[in-house]
What does this fold into?
Amino acid sequence: MSHQHLEALDVAAIREEFPILQREFDGQQVVYLDNAATTQTPDPVVDAMSDYYRESNANVHRGIHHLSQEASNAYETAHDRVAEFINADGREEVVFTKNTTEGENLLAYAWGLNELGPEDEVVLTEMEHHASLVTWQQIAERTGATVRYIRIDEDGRLDMDHAADLIADDTAIVSAAHVSNTLGTVNPVGQLTDLAHDHDALSFIDGAQAVPNRPVDVKAIDADFYAFSGHKMAGPTGIGVLYGKRDLFEELDPFLYGGGMIRKVTFEDSTWGDLPWKFEPGTPQIAEAVGLHAAVDWLEDIGLERIQAHEEELAAYAYDRLAAEDDVELYGPDGSDRGGLVSFNLDGVHAHDLTSIMNDHTIAVRAGDHCTQPLHDKLGVPASTRASFYVYNTREEIDKLVDALDDARQLFA
Amino acid sequence: MGLGSDMYRQQILDHYKNPRNYGELEDPTFTHIGENPMCGDEIRMDVKLDDDEETIERVAFSGDGCAISQASASMLSGKLHGKTVDELLEMDRDDVIDMLGVDISPMRVKCAVLAEKVAQDGAEIYQGELDVEKTTTED
It folds into this structure.
C-alpha cells in the first residue's frame, strides 16, 4: 500500500498532548515502546472524561432529571460515534464491553455455549491471543466441539491453503486476529470471513491491534463480529467494543443479566430490551464511553491512514535496524506490510534480562509470551521482547532501543 | 559495572555464565521440577541427603531461563550444602534476595525465588506433606 500522498504526522505537536512522555526516571526521559499492551492517553481524552465527571455525571437510561439526560445522551452518542468510526449500521450494532477479551467471551458464552455441539468445529489461527484461544478451548470442552488451528508459514503468515482445507461444512465459527500482537502479521480477514460464509459459518475478528492504527470497515470485511479495546487506541481502560451484525445480535441471548437490559420483568419471567442495551446490563462505563468517543475524534482528526503510514514506517525501520544485527532473531513477516510492532530475541540473553536492561535506559518494552504461549512454543522460544509503536514514537526512540542492545551484549558476553 | 545494571552485578552474571552444581544427581533422595510459565524459566533440583536423612549432602540443578532464575539456582545449590531439610523449609524470599545481593524489581521476584520454591516443594513432597507434580511461581 502506498502512502506517498499522505502528509507525515507532526509528531512533535502530537507529543505535546501526552505529558507522560516527558516523564523521567533517573534523569532519562521515558521511551515508551509498549503500545501493543496499552497506548498513552492524550489530554483531550483525559479532559473529556474529567469534564464529564465535573459537569455531567449521573446514571444513565432511567433518569428524568437534567444530569441523567446529559449523561444518557453522552453515553448513547458514544455508540453512534463508534458505529460511524467502523462503518457499522448504527448503535444497535455496537456493544460496549470491558475490553476485547470480554467481547470474545460474550460471544463464546451467549452463542458458543448454546449453539455448539460435538459435530461442530471452531477454527482459530496459530497466532491467536489467549483471549480467543483459551476462551474457545473452554467452550469446546464444555460443548464437545473441536478446535482447529490454521497454520502459519515460515514468514509468520497464515497458510491460506490450509485455511481453505480446514474451513469446511463442520465449521461453526472462524475466529482470527486482524493483526497479530506478537508477529505483527496483518491477516486477510476478509478472505477468512468469505471462507467462513461459504460454509455457513460465522466470523469473529479480534481487532485489538488493528483498529488503533488503520482504517477498519466492518462492512468491507463482512465480519459477523469484530472486537477491540479502547485503551489500545488512545482511549481509556475499562471499555471495549463488540460489533455484531444486527440480525445476529437480535437472535442472540444476553450474556449478563441485570438492570438496564430488560423490557418487562415479572416474578416469573423477563423480556430483553433493545439493542445494544440488552448486552449492557448494570451501570455501564459512562465516563469511559465519553473518553472512547473523544479518542475516536482525536484519531480521526489525525487520520487513520496517516497513522497507519507512520506505524508502518516505524515498524519497517525497526525491523531493518534489528535485522542488521547478526545476533538478533526477529519473528513475523518482513517488509512494510505489518502492524506497528516488532518481536525479537538477542542471542544469549533471555527476553526478561534484555527487557530489564532496556528499563535501565528507561526504555519501556515488553518481555514474555505476549499471551500467545502456543505460538511461542511453535517459534521454539519461551519468550520474546516486543517493541510496539504508536503515533507519538520516533525513529530516534528506535535508535535508542538498538543502541541499548550493546549494553546487554557487554553484560552477557 | 556501571550502566545502572544493578540487577546484574558480577556475581549473578558469573553464576549465570558458569553455573555451579549444574546437572543431575545419579541417586537423589528427592527431585522436583518447577517453572514460571509466563517467563519460560524452568528448574529441576536434585537433592541427596546424608544417611541421617536430614542433612543435605549434595544439590544439583538443571534447566534454563533468565539470568536471575539460573544464578539463583546456582547460588542456592551451594548454600544448601550441609544445611538440614528443616533449614531449607525455613528459608523465605528475603533469604534468596539477600543471597543474590541485589535489588530485585517486583516483577522479577518470581524468577529469583523459583529454585528455592522448587527445592522446598521437593522436600515437602519427600516428607509426604505436599502433592504436586510441578511447582509454579505464578499465583
